[in-house]
Specification:
Oligomer: heterodimer
Structural class of chain A: mainly alpha
CATH topology of the largest domain in chain B: Rossmann fold
Largest sheet of chain B: 6 strands, mixed
Number of domains of chain B: 3
Radius of gyration of chain A: 21 Å
Shape of chain A: globular
Number of strands of chain A: 4
Helix content of chain B: 25-40%
Order of helices and strands of chain A: HHHHHEEHEEHHHHHHH
Structural class of chain B: alpha/beta
């Protein structure tokens, strides 16, 4: 009997160590593999890339520039999912924020004020989600499906008059600074928006490892009952995280809006799927409790490299299919790893 | 017994179930006669539920055999057990409120031709069964209009009409009123008279004596006795069989009990509690002893603020009871009943579990100090002798005893002055048990107050200075522990013999 249980214990150890290793490092291998495949592929025929070279400076800058919105979202979304919750309205929050940002700018509000007001608006939208989930106890998926529709509806209302996006209103024009944030190189050829995304990610990595918010999120997602009995106000944690995701979605909306030089009420469409994909690829458990901000950030880089790379490798109409396949692969590997963990 | 003209309804031979480090069921053999109500008795952890799970196919035995009506029975799933004629009545009801009684009775057994439902003999049989066991229920009534007890009877009728020869009922009266219990007993007796075998599990002794034909007693995973209930000489005899050796206890009066009363509870009442009042002194270990459902967990949770209760709780002179957060801040910690689902973060490490109740202590200006956390975890691992090579080990990989020590460490790290321990040694092996008792004594000797909520008499009489006896959500009696404690009196009070009541 003793022999038997010793044996089980040691074999379980090895299994756990393997799965720990996989979970911690596989994401970097995936990134390297994706970049390697894209680099050796024959890319001659593509206009977007410098001739025949994926690992070209301009190409990389291009990818990172358009990645900014997703990179902004990845960290906050990870923390929310670590706490066991989800926000399907991020895309609509992003769209609405983009429209608000453009409206403010076009009406002559200075850059910094536009920026801060939009982020505050995003937090407000996040608070609406938090209210529905925490106070009204609506299932997170349903609550944020409701706001997905609501926020998008408001964004469309704000851009009436038969135009598809805000570029100008009557005599009013977009101010000259409008797309500096998303396009103007400030450091290493990359615009402010990208560096803000890096800064946000660093801040959230710090928050996850070195502040109570990160610890409380993990406890809430790991075991909500035990968390409450340990004196953690899980409602407040969840509410706060929804506001955080709202703010991140607003930042993403600002980046997208500035990059495209307009306020597009559909600019965030499908962003919720990308965010979930990125977080899953980063190895965050769908059931909560586990997940790392940094790994989701890398996951976002992988997805953007794939998306942009695919523009050049496969016909456009295959892309959604490939993204779906990637999501399936991520979910399956996630499941396999956590099963290995739970075994024996 | 060598010749078996009537094979028993169910028999088990040498049945054993091992978990890593624990043998939950140990070489159990007995037979259940056909057409009888057979009661399964034992304390918590005696192995009843593991045994039942093996019979119903939810668990597979490590060793041993089972047979149903003479045929070998080794179900790999609950479905297979059902096919062999064994049905289980769960505490959660499995009826569809929106359908009628008859539709519920034939659910999953409907006959159809080209997808169109047909009347069939299944329906006739269901009606027949129902009219025999409970004619008062109208088959055309909507199930949502029935009472809980009636829904239970519908489930029983469904099991019986689907051809189950053995129906297992686990605490079926938990949610019923006294009159409904009588009605259920009538149904069970009519079932038995119709040749169905009922395996009945309950902690309420009076139900056993009122209903049972035979009884099997388990203790510590072993089979103690199977006999007709008529051979049992009253309540005390049955309790003795369940508890075993005349409760040896090694309690030594402690002289560190302070004079200062640290906790006063007055008139706690809620759904389950009835006017519970008591007090705890500094440095004292008080016990709350009662059977399952007597209100132990509810008292602990009410004090801790995890459940709402009317009445007053004063801790160190201040009123508390609003929320766990408030209780922890005041200096109270709870070691919950279910360690894995309520006490631990199994996916996190020992280090992260130890600190979770008092993370504020580890932060400086809002920034978390990992080295302080490591030092604290190392300290508690050493002090409580938690067997691990690293504080970064995930707690799901620890044994039950070590997991429980982690929960203790969590509470100690929260600087608790009053510890509420709900079943502190459940699922813990003997060695770790005595270590946990030492930890509890040391805590009290250091001036902390401890309240132990337990359904193990040995435990309560082993460590507690004072014991409150619970039955039916109320404190029935209070005794001071010592060499001349009257065990028979205690057992009588907690099983509903009211002679000892002081209130």
């Amino acid at each position: 009997m003793t022999d038997l249980s010793n044996h089980t214990r040691s074999s379980r150890h090895l299994g756990a160590r393997v799965s720990d290793f996989l979970r911690n490092y596989y994401i970097y291998f995936v990134l390297v593999a994706v970049v390697a495949v894209l680099s050796v592929a024959n890319l001659d025929q593509f206009a977007l890339f410098e001739r025949g070279n994926f690992l070209n400076k301009r190409n990389i800058i291009n990818i990172l520039r358009v990645s900014a919105p997703l990179l902004m979202l990845a960290g906050a979304f990870t923390l929310l999912m670590v706490s066991g919750y989800i926000d399907l309205s991020v895309g609509s929050t992003m769209s609405l924020s983009a429209v608000i940002y453009a409206l403010l700018a076009i009406n002559g509000v200075p850059f910094l004020a536009c920026f801060v007001l939009t982020v505050i608006a995003g937090m407000g939208l996040g608070a609406v989600n938090g209210f529905l989930v925490v106070r009204l106890k609506i299932t997170p998926v349903i609550a944020t499906l409701i706001t997905l529709s609501l926020f998008k509806g408001i964004a469309l209302l704000l851009v009436q008059d038969g135009v598809s996006a805000i570029k100008s209103i009557g005599e009013l024009r977009m101010p000259g600074w409008f797309n500096d944030y998303g396009r103007d190189a400030v450091l290493l050829g990359l615009p402010m928006a990208f560096w803000v995304a890096v800064g946000v990610t660093l801040a959230l990595i710090f928050a996850q490892n070195r502040t109570l918010l990160g610890k409380y999120a993990a406890a809430t997602g790991g075991n909500p009952v035990a968390a409450r009995l340990s004196g953690i106000n899980t409602n407040r944690v969840v509410f706060g995280l929804y506001m955080l995701v709202g703010a991140a979605a607003a930042l993403a909306g600002i980046a997208r809006s500035s990059f495209m030089s307009l306020g597009d009420p559909l600019s965030g469409d499908g962003m919720e799927l990308s965010a979930i994909l990125v977080v899953l690829i980063g190895g965050t458990a769908f059931s909560g409790g586990e997940g790392r901000v940094l790994r989701s950030f890398v996951g976002a880089l992988i997805i953007m490299a794939l998306t942009v790379g695919m523009l050049t490798l496969v016909p456009a109409y295959y892309q959604t299919l490939v993204i779906g396949a990637a999501l399936l692969a991520a979910a399956a590997s996630n499941h396999l790893i956590s099963r290995k963990e739970g075994m024996a | 017994m060598s010749v078996q003209p009537h094979p028993s309804a169910l028999s088990v031979t040498g049945l054993t179930k091992d978990y890593p480090g624990v043998r939950a069921v140990d070489d159990v053999s007995f037979a259940i006669a056909k057409g009888a109500v057979h009661c399964l008795m034992g304390e918590n952890g005696a192995g009843k539920s593991t045994l039942v799970k093996m019979i119903t196919g939810a668990l597979q035995p490590t060793r041993g055999e089972m047979s149903v009506a003479g045929r070998s029975h080794c179900p790999k799933s609950t479905q297979e057990a059902r096919d062999n004629g064994i049905a289980t009545l769960f505490q959660e009801l499995n009826v569809v409120d929106e359908l009628t009684v008859l539709e519920n009775l034939t659910l999953g057994m409907e006959r159809s031709r080209f997808g169109i439902l047909m009347n069939s003999e299944v329906e006739a049989r269901a009606m027949q069964t129902l009219s025999v066991i409970e004619p008062a229920i109208d088959p055309a009534a909507r199930v949502s209009s029935l009472s809980v007890a009636q829904k239970q009877i519908v489930e029983i009728a469904r099991a019986a009409s689907s051809g189950a020869d053995v129906i297992i009922m686990d605490e079926p009266t938990a949610a019923l009123s006294e009159r409904e219990v009588e009605r259920l007993f009538g149904v069970i007796r009519r079932l038995r008279d119709g040749g169905v075998t009922v395996i009945y599990i309950s902690h309420k002794l009076e139900e056993i004596f009122a209903l049972g034909d035979h009884v099997t007693v388990l203790r510590d995973g072993r089979h103690i006795r199977t006999c007709p209930l008529s051979e049992i000489d009253g309540r005390a005899h049955l309790i003795e069989l369940m508890i075993g050796r005349s409760v040896l206890h090694d309690y030594h009066p402690r002289d560190t009990i302070g004079q200062e009363t640290i906790l006063v509870a007055e008139g706690l009442s809620n759904r389950l509690l009835k006017n519970v009042s008591f007090d705890v002194k500094k440095g004292e270990i008080v016990g709350f002893y009662g059977l399952v459902g007597a209100g132990k967990t509810e008292i602990a949770r009410a004090i801790f603020g995890a459940d709402k209760a009317s009445g007053r709780v004063r801790f160190k002179g201040r009123e508390i009871g609003g929320s766990p957060k408030e209780a922890i801040a005041a200096g109270i910690a709870l070691v919950p009943e279910e360690r894995r689902t309520q006490g631990l973060f199994t996916a996190l490490t020992i280090r992260e579990n130890v600190s979770v109740m008092n993370l504020g202590k580890l932060s400086k200006g809002g920034v978390f100090q990992p080295h302080v956390e490591r030092a604290a975890a190392e300290d508690y691992v050493a002090r409580l002798r938690i067997a691990t090579h690293s504080i970064d080990k995930h707690v799901e990989k620890l044994s039950g005893g070590n997991q429980q020590k982690v929960v203790f460490a969590k509470c100690l790290f929260a600087d608790a002055e009053l510890l509420l321990l709900d079943e502190p040694t459940r699922g813990v092996d003997v060695g770790a048990k005595s270590e946990i008792y030492d930890i509890i004594r040391n805590l009290a000797d250091a001036g902390n107050a401890v309240a132990v909520f337990s359904s193990e008499l040995e435990e309560v009489l082993g460590i507690c200075d004072r014991v409150f006896l619970l039955f039916d959500g109320a404190v029935q009696d209070e005794i001071v522990n010592g060499a001349e404690v009257d065990v028979a009196h205690i057992l009588n009070v907690v099983t509903g013999g009211h002679e000892g009541a002081v209130q």
